[in-house]
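[job 4471] stage=fold_predict status=RUNNING
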Amino acid sequence: MSWSATARYGLDPAPGGLGLVQDLLNTVGAGAPRIPDLLAEVAEAQAWVDEATAQWAAVTGQRVPRVALDADGLTELRAFRDDLQEATAKAQEAASGPGALALVLHSATAALQLGEGGLVRLEPRGTGWRRLASLALAAAFEGQQADTRRRLKTCRNLRCRVAFYDRSRNNSGVWHDVKSCGNAANLRAYRARRRAQNG
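[job 4471] inference complete, writing structure tokens
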């Protein structure tokens, strides 16, 4: 089993539960030729949700949560994904330093649970799309605590925006694929500079 939305772009997943955040971001239609949006219709979205929650359970060692989508919930889930994508892109831009307090885009319910081994666990709550949002936000929070969240990025190519996990030593990656996105962007920038010089 794998993170199906991320696998269709040929990318390695982010570690642990952060893979759910990356996979949710990668449900968007992107690439050339354009890969379809997995959240376009309820049936396809539910199939993705079922696979993603099963994979989340496999990597976190927790039970598979039941998440049932309907048309209204799918609309909300797409809006959540879009806000998550925008926040991920802005986090890359703002990595240079702290900024002003940001507007809260979404909130989700979770509980802290103490296990018999003494470990405290964050237990996402909610139903429908809110349950999935809670899982994703809990995974992002845990990624922040482990300092892995900052490595989850979206491709700088505005025509792409695929989410990738930056495994570079200095966390400097900006393209999900240097060959398809980086080279094309660098070529466009080179041609623009040449036109300006010859202009």
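[job 4471] summary: The first helix runs from residue 4 to 7.
[job 4471] exit 0
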